[in-house]
Structure formats: C-alpha cells, structure tokens
C-alpha cells in the first residue's frame, strides 16, 4: 500500500467513524426529544441543545480530514502515510465512542427535562463533559499530524 493510500484511509476512517458516532448519538437524542415534544411541544428550545450536542464529533472528524488532505502527496512514503494514518486514530476512536455516549447521556437529560424543565441548564453539563474527550482526541490528532 502506498503512503498516500494509507494516509487517505486514515483520514477516511476518522471522518467516517466520527460521523457514525455522531449519527448514532443524534439518533438516540433525536428519538428521545421527539417523544417528549409529542407530549409537550413547548419544551423544544429546552431539549434542542441536548439533541444537537453529539453532532460535534462528526464536525471534528470532517475538519481533521480536510486539514489532513493538505498533507497528502502522490510521492508520500509509506512511513509518512502511516504517520498520518496513526495521527487520525485518536480522533477516530474518541469521536466514535464519545458521539454515541454523548447521545445516550443527552437522552437522560431530555427525559429529565420532560419531568422538570427548570433543570435544563444544569443537564447540559453531563453530555458536555463527554465532549471533553472528543476535543482531547482532536487535539492529540492535530499534534501528531504536525
């Protein structure tokens, strides 16, 4: 496998896994919100932030892949390609896992808002803490890419 193929594979995996994690997280949170909003449509603004929080991992993966593409050259060595592949993995893994679990955590917050909407501001904290690991994965991947 050529260096450029290996690097491209790493970036594609990063964008794909981050997008998959976000998609699952959004599926969980969106489904929960739809159930709550069917009963109480006025709570839309309270649950909206919790619903969209898992989308950020997909954005991180997309941005990293775009940044990484600028480092791929046709004559790239296998070692350089492996380095870019490896650099993409921290974000790929943390983006996948944190997107899923952020969505699941948001579901709990959405159900809590259904019972007591005055907690909405406090409930954002729990899925936001999971976001920290996606950000750390992004930072590590960017540092490894340099």
Describe the protein's architecture and organization.
Helix content is 85%, strand content 0%. With 146 residues, the chain is an all-alpha fold. The chain has a single domain (3-145), classed as lithium bound rotor ring of v- atpase (Four Helix Bundle (Hemerythrin (Met), subunit A)), CATH 1.20.120. The mean pLDDT is 96.
Helix and strand string, N-terminal first? HHHHHH
Oligomeric assembly: single chain
Radius of gyration: 18 Å
What's the β-strand tally? Answer: 0
Would you give the CATH topology?
A: Four Helix Bundle (Hemerythrin (Met), subunit A)
Overall mean confidence score, pLDDT: 96
* Termini gap: 22 Å
Q: Look at the helices and sheets and give the structural class.
A: mainly alpha
Are there runs of 5+ residues with pLDDT below 50, and where? none
Write the layout of secondary structure elements.
Layout: H1 3-39, H2 44-52, H3 55-69, H4 78-115, H5 120-123, H6 125-145
Helix pairs in contact: 1-2, 1-3, 1-4, 2-4, 3-4, 3-6, 4-6
Brief summary of the model shown:
This protein has six helices and no strands. The chain is mainly alpha-helical and 146 residues long. The protein has a single domain, classed as lithium bound rotor ring of v- atpase (Four Helix Bundle (Hemerythrin (Met), subunit A), Up-down Bundle).
């Amino acid at each position: 496998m050529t260096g450029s193929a290996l690097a491209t594979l790493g970036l594609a995996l990063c964008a794909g896994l981050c997008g998959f994690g976000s998609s699952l997280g959004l599926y969980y949170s969106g489904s929960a919100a739809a159930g709550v909003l069917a009963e109480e449509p006025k709570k839309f603004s309270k649950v909206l932030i919790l619903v969209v929080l898992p989308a950020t991992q997909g954005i991180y993966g997309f941005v990293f892949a775009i940044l990484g593409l600028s480092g791929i050259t046709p004559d790239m060595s296998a070692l350089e390609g492996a380095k870019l592949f490896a650099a993409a993995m921290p974000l790929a893994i943390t983006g996948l896992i944190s997107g899923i679990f952020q969505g699941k955590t948001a579901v709990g917050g959405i159900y809590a808002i259904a019972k007591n909407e005055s907690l909405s501001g406090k409930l954002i904290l729990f899925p936001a803490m999971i976001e920290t690991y996606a950000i750390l994965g992004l930072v590590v991947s960017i540092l490894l890419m340099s």
